[in-house]
Specification:
The structure holds two protein chains of two kinds.
Chain A: H1 5-11, H2 16-32, E1 38-43, E2 52-56, H3 82-85, E3 90-94, H4 96-107, E4 116-121, E5 127-128, E6 131-132, E7 151-153, H5 166-176, H6 179-191, H7 198-202, H8 227-240, H9 250-254, H10 261-276
Chain B: H1 3-6, E1 16-21, H2 25-34, E2 43-48, H3 56-64, E3 69-74, H4 85-102, E4 110-114, H5 120-137, H6 141-144
Parallel strand pairs in B: 1-2, 1-3, 3-4
Classes of the chains: A alpha/beta, B alpha/beta.
């Protein structure tokens, strides 16, 4: 993850206290008027730089909600959990990227749009251990007003960035390599995998109750943390998210071995955008590209 | 097959796995046989109901189990027995092929095709072509070097 000095300067202009009190007021209103039964947001954790998720059910507790530049978690993961599902309707604090996750879950019929009140906070990049995350470089949804959210808080404008992001540059480098070199690159990455499945557990879109990785009759993916199973697991994980991944990049943040899952996700998201003119989590009406088809789809690669 | 002899490049015979749909390509391959069309014997055919049924796990598994190349073939667009299976497959395979390319797998090892029940000749040519391409590339050492256990 890389630092972007420009962005951190801009961050200084945001008044997080204002955002925080606005979130608290809204949460109080929603709970008191019984519009929602639970508010999912960020609360202060043991470290100021690592807020933890909080679930507020009582209007008197809204002061536990915090918001600062370290709110990197994508809270929409909780919406598909049985404990939370039973407590619908909910309100949830989302940044632009997280709002796209919520839309993705609605499109895939995991939740109902009417069940969720999204509090969209405009965001100028979040920080992890002092550095702005690389996904924030060319974020197109700094202000979630162009996504379907119920309420927008803050007024950061999404700057149309012309410079290539760090991820794009790395991708370009990787694409310049020969197939052999790329294979070695990914082998080195995937070889570090310890198969903790943290990438899957943190992904809002990996909601299958029975994951292919745990199927044993037949076993598609070797569960041993060796090169073979690691390659299959990481390839399949990425492939199952084609056209669904909203690039919140929580998987690569959660990865204890620092595997560059963000590069793979970003590559696939770009290919989906170029091939099918589809960006995940932006539109409630558009179906994910692999669940539909067009008679005129490209078939140059087919003999 | 003995891997130690097979992996030597000079007398290397590629192992090609073909996942085909039962309505078009399998019948096409059958036609190639009854028409006495000669083609490379390196291909092992696996019959499935439809290209829409061909999960990408199958392809990865084939490589894991020692395939040097994979062919996936089914009905031409518009000919699907289930009306739209091949349309879904077309999108899935486009993305899968791109992803495999990005992960460093030579795209000549993974060939997609439409072969109808009347195209016995096309099937023969396809298998010959893929076999020759893969023979030129040599054994798929990259994938075979991925060990099940790290300490192996």
């Amino acid at each position: 993850m890389t630092t972007n000095s420009n962005q951190s300067n801009q961050n200084a202009n945001i008044n997080y206290n204002d955002l925080q009190s606005e979130i608290r007021h809204l949460a109080k209103d929603l709970l008191e008027s019984k519009k929602v039964r639970i508010v999912i947001g960020y609360g202060s954790g043991p470290l100021n730089s690592k807020p933890v998720p909080v679930f507020i059910t009582d209007a008197n507790d809204v002061d536990r909600l915090v918001y600062n530049e370290f709110c990197f978690n994508n809270l929409s993961i909780y919406l598909t959990k049985a404990e939370i599902k039973a407590k619908a309707p909910w309100a949830i604090v989302v940044k632009g990227c997280d709002a796209r996750s919520v839309i993705g879950l609605v499109v895939e019929n995991q939740i109902k749009r009417d069940d969720v009140f999204t509090i969209g906070v405009s965001c100028n990049g979040v920080k992890l251990e002092g550095n702005t995350l690389s996904k924030c470089d060319t974020c197109a949804v700094k202000n979630p007003s162009n996504i379907n959210v119920n309420k927008v808080i803050g007024n950061i404008k999404t700057a149309s960035s012309t410079s290539a992001s760090t991820l794009d540059k790395e991708l370009e480098q990787l694409n310049k390599m020969s197939a052999e070199e790329r294979f070695q690159f990914w082998k080195n990455e995937f070889d570090r995998c310890i198969r903790c499945y943290g990438c899957r557990q943190i992904c809002p879109h990996c909601f299958c109750n029975n994951c292919i990785a745990e199927k044993s009759a037949p076993q598609w993916i070797s569960t041993t943390p060796g090169s073979r199973g690691n390659f299959a697991w990481n390839a399949i994980r990425a492939f199952h998210l084609v056209g669904r991944c909203v690039e919140c990049m929580e998987c690569s943040r959660a990865c204890p071995m620092g595997i560059r899952l963000d590069l793979l996700n970003h590559y696939l998201a770009q290919e989906v955008r170029d091939s099918y003119n589809f960006v995940a989590g932006m539109d409630l009406e558009q179906k994910p590209p692999l669940t539909t088809y067009n008679l005129k789809d490209n078939q140059d690669f087919i003999k | 097959m003995n891997n130690t002899t097979n992996n030597k490049k000079e007398n290397f015979e590629p192992r090609i796995i073909a996942f085909v749909c039962q309505w078009c390509t399998y019948t096409g391959a059958d036609l190639a046989g009854t028409s006495r069309i000669q083609y490379a014997p390196n291909v092992r055919i696996i019959k499935l109901p439809c290209t829409g049924r061909i999960d990408v796990h199958f392809i990865l598994k084939a490589f894991e189990q020692g395939a040097d190349g994979v062919i996936v073939s089914g009905c031409h667009p518009g000919d699907c027995h289930y009306t739209s299976g091949n349309y879904y497959a077309r999108r899935r395979f486009e993305m899968f092929k791109k992803m495999m390319g990005f992960l460093g797998i030579d795209d000549k090892r993974l060939q997609f095709a439409w072969v109808s029940a009347a195209e016995g000749r096309k099937w023969g040519t396809l298998v010959d072509e893929v076999t020759n391409n893969v023979r030129a590339l040599g054994p798929f050492e990259d994938y075979k070097s991925l060990k099940i256990f790290q300490a192996e």
